[in-house]
Predict the structure.
Amino acid sequence: MDDRTGAPVSPGAGGSAAAGAAGLPGAPPWYGAVTIGLFYAAAAVLITYTLVPLPGQRAFGAGNYWLAGAIFIAHLAVSRIFRLRMIRAARGG
């Protein structure tokens, strides 16, 4: 048993099975999927535009870089907002 959560820990797991997404206790179950999804979406825009442009991407031009940047900033914002919420919740305020 993990002393912090009371959750059973499998041998060799190295931590709590209920640690939450991205190692954040109390994180919503979708938190990890959203943050990683935003990161991969930004990477996909850059990769497809520079290596194998999809139909319409060439016409969008430099907007592809702005789109990838906006998606990456959204990734950072979501990560920071939830980390701050969890820190405030842990402090009790």
Q: What stands out?
A: The first helix runs from residue 31 to 50. The two ends are 29 Å apart (CA to CA).
